[in-house]
Specification:
single chain; about 525 residues; alpha+beta; Poly(a)-polymerase, middle domain; five-stranded antiparallel beta sheet; 16 helices; 10 strands; globular; binds 3'-deoxyadenosine-5'-triphosphate; binds manganese (II) ion; metal-binding
Length: about 525
């Protein structure tokens, strides 16, 4: 299809049939699929590389239309304004992300190799960024001593990180590329070890790692572009990175400082949040995703895992224990609950994405509150649809209290499945709501931050004060700065609750902890 697209676009640009036929076009995959660690929920990240006369506009018109005309394609969502522009599709039930990169070459044939840095010369920034994903994955695979061992170990680490709720770039932990680079580094250090040993070394080494010493798969290289590569000696911003994990392909950068900061819209099943305006080149303070809290939490997890693996090795326990589910909702006495609400599925997708992308910043601000030791963000938001019969119910739902009778009204089939389906669903629901006056469907997405408060001083008198009004107000102000924000159709509520007030949906089959007896000194 990509070759056909190049041909059609070449003809549209007035080229002769024979030249258009020779223009070529090639695809490269990247992401988990290319690394060989994809699972049932993964997409296929695909980069479409074209010759220089084909434009990004061609891609977002001609190729987009070609996709839309295929009946195998159920969702085709262009996100042309993103930091890394993408067409998200669902093709024969498989999500595929199509990225676009235009080379400076008159023809792109099948022998084209993206690893040559000279390729990047005279390209648009977006083309360089789009090629980056593929260049990085290929370089990782090239730099590990044994790809088979690497894949096995990485699958294990990914599963572990997901179960322990520390797999998420957006929330200030690490994402797929960073985990892959960490495992790759351990593989390099132990080139002859089996995957099990790599996993064991992984936890020990990372627990002891002297951050902010960077993790590098090879020395950072200079290259032909006028762009900066990661260099804490030269750039003060780079010194702010707490856990620098540096991408091996030129231009090398700190993985967590990449585009994730600008994430905005999340689709329900197809991922890749498309951020709207391109960011200013270096946003001070916001370009490092890992915070003091998330770093501390990951470090604790490395330690716990290292101890479990030690026991596995001597036969005292099994691998199953390593993959035990996190205990986030059992761990803290107080939680911050962030409720993003709106009246339509379509709007909610963008609104929750906006709020989600800012949670990390709230965590950063909470860390400055003197009595707070740690602010632990949970990696995913909880989505709810509530049918409300009156304004009171709407208000309660939007503040995070879903009354039982409201919850009972909402049936499972109301859940939005796909963008298109969600839109249709929206129209139906709104029509129904309009018929029954006063009835409204409220979409909410709730995020949680666990609060670890400093233990009370023995000689302190009176109640301990925990004032988080500054960070929370600042956060709501910040999310409301979103250019599409509208006070009448969107809500944002941040409040702090006791663990006993956690709604039952967060426990997801787990036992709710029994109410704790307050220990009072006699
Ligand atoms: P899955 O198995 O697909 O869940 P993955 O590691 O392939 O895991 P993604 O498909 O989300 O994860 O991302 C693949 C690559 O695309 C990783 C990164 O180089 C790039 N990428 C992901 N999200 C963004 C984003 N918001 N902006 C820019 N690049 C992104
Ligand atoms: Mn992917
Ligand atoms: Mn993807």
């Amino acid at each position: 299809m990509v070759k056909d697209f190049v041909y059609r676009a070449s003809i549209a640009h007035g080229m002769s049939d024979s030249i258009a036929r020779q223009a070529g076009g090639k695809i490269f995959t990247f992401g988990s699929y290319r690394l060989g660690v994809h699972g049932p929920g993964s997409d296929i990240d695909t980069l479409c590389v074209v010759p220089k006369h084909i434009t990004r506009e061609d891609f977002f018109h001609i190729f987009l239309d070609m996709l839309r005309q295929r009946e195998e394609a159920t969702d085709v969502v262009p996100v042309s304004e993103a930091y890394v522009p993408v067409i998200q599709t669902n093709f024969m039930g498989i999500s595929i992300d199509f990225l676009f990169a235009r080379t400076a070459l008159p023809r792109v044939d099948q022998s084209l190799d993206l690893s040559n840095d000279q390729m990047l010369k005279n390209l648009d920034e977006r083309d360089v960024r789009s090629m980056g994903g593929s260049r990085v994955t290929d370089e990782i695979l090239r730099l590990v001593p044994d790809v088979h061992v690497f894949r096995l170990a990485l699958r294990c680490i990914k599963l572990w990180a997901q179960r322990r709720a520390i797999y998420s770039n957006v929330m200030g932990f690490l994402g797929g590329v960073a985990w892959a680079m960490l495992v790759a580094r351990i593989c390099q250090l132990y080139p002859n070890e089996a995957a099990g040993a790599i996993v064991s070394r992984f936890f020990v080494i990372l627990y002891q790692w002297q951050w902010p010493q960077p993790v590098l798969l090879k020395p950072i290289e200079e290259g032909p572009l006028a762009v900066r590569v990661w260099n804490p000696k030269l750039y003060p911003q780079d010194r702010l990175h707490r856990m620098p994990i540096i991408t091996p392909a030129y231009p090398s950068m700190c993985e967590q400082a990449r585009s994730y900061v600008h994430v905005l819209i999340r689709r329900p099943r197809l991922r890749h949040p498309p951020p709207p305006p391109p960011p200013p080149p270096h946003v001070a303070g916001s370009t490092h995703n890992v915070t003091g809290s998330t770093q501390m939490i990951m470090s604790q997890e490395f330690k716990i895992a290292a101890e479990i693996v030690d026991k596995i090795i001597v036969g005292k326990t099994t691998w199953k224990e390593l993959f035990k589910k996190h205990d986030f909702f059992h761990k803290y006495k107080y939680y911050l609950q962030i409720v993003a609400s709106s009246g339509s599925a379509d709007l909610q997708l963008k609104w929750e994405g906006t709020v989600e992308s800012k949670v990390r910043q709230l965590v950063g601000k909470l860390e400055n509150v003197p009595t707070l030791v740690c602010a632990h963000p949970f990696t995913k938001g909880f989505e709810q649809i509530s049918k409300c019969h009156n304004d009171d119910e709407v208000r309660m739902v939007a503040t995070g209290d879903i009354p039982e009778e409201v919850a009972a009204r909402t049936k499972l089939e109301d859940l939005p499945k796909k963008d298109e389906a969600a839109k249709e669903q929206d129209a139906v629901v709104q029509a129904q709501d309009a018929q029954q006056e006063g009835h409204r469907t409220i979409y909410t997405t709730t995020f949680y931050i666990g609060l670890c408060v400093e233990p009370k001083q023995a000689n302190a008198t009176g109640p301990r004060k925990l004032d988080i009004s500054y960070p929370t107000n600042d956060f709501t102000r910040l999310v409301k700065q979103w250019e599409q924000y509208d006070d009448s159709s969107m809500g944002i509520v941040v409040r702090h609750i006791k663990c006993s007030q956690l709604p039952s949906y967060v426990f997801d089959g787990d036992e709710r902890p029994p109410p704790k007896q307050l220990k009072r000194p006699k």
